[in-house]
Write a structure and sequence with these properties.
By secondary structure, the chain is mainly alpha-helical. It contains 11 helices and no strands. The chain has a domain at 134-202. Helix content is 71%, strand content 0%. Helix 8 runs antiparallel to helix 9. The two termini are 19 Å apart.
Length: 213
């Protein structure tokens, strides 16, 4: 399932992202005075990049080796794909340029952080602003990890706090606007409430054979 998600999600994002950059079209400027007032903190790029080195492998770390939980992992996979596909459709319909990164002076930055930003900008053009896939995709991983780590409050709190920090890092690295954060939370809530949670409820209520069918 992880391989399928990567094979669908990564090309969908990269193609859409660079297509919108080629078009160079933005429907409106989401920037607010709060966006401009939030300080740039270069070191938070380490937290921002944790989407890739922590949150994406998180299901492999947190998933219990039980048949029921593996079925829940299928619901996670389905929910993630819905988030990715619906967000990319939105990127095409309502593109918005993330022009905040223009204020970053990479020459006066620590070389390690500078190289991380350069790599990020090479792969990720300043489009596909809202909703933030950082917030929504890491959020669904976090919700399942908290569910699977039931009875292990230290791990639950740790992953929850790290997700909050990662969510805030999209602002302190100037990679997103506040609107992106809010709409990322919205799509996460919609997918969880109307897709994932009903699926989890069915797993709890129906006999195993019926669920499998």
């Amino acid at each position: 399932m992880a391989l399928l998600d990567v094979c669908i999600g990564a090309p969908a994002y990269l193609i859409t992202n660079h297509l919108m950059n080629w078009r160079g079209t933005t429907v409106f400027d989401p920037v607010t005075s709060i966006d401009l007032a939030i300080p740039f903190m270069a070191w938070t790029i380490v937290i921002y990049q944790s989407l890739f080195y922590f949150f994406y492998p998180l299901p492999l770390i947190s998933l219990p080796n039980e048949k029921k939980m593996r079925r829940e992992a299928l619901l996670l996979s389905q929910g993630l794909l819905v988030i990715i596909i619906s967000s990319n459709i939105w990127f095409v319909i309502f593109p918005a340029e993330v022009h905040l990164r223009d204020s970053i002076d990479i020459n006066n930055m620590h070389p390690i952080f500078a190289s991380m930003f350069e790599t990020l900008w090479f792969l990720d053009s300043p489009y596909n602003s809202w909703p933030s896939l950082h917030v929504s995709s890491a959020g669904i991983f976090t919700l399942f990890a908290i569910r699977w780590w039931k009875g292990r409050p230290i791990l639950q709190w740790a992953v929850g706090i790290w997700w909050v920090l990662m969510t805030l890092s999209i602002l302190t690295t100037k990679q997103h606007f506040i609107l992106d954060l809010v709409t990322g939370l919205m799509i996460l809530g919609i997918v969880w409430r109307w897709q994932v949670q009903p699926g989890l409820d069915r797993l709890e209520m129906k006999p195993e054979k019926e669920v499998t069918s």
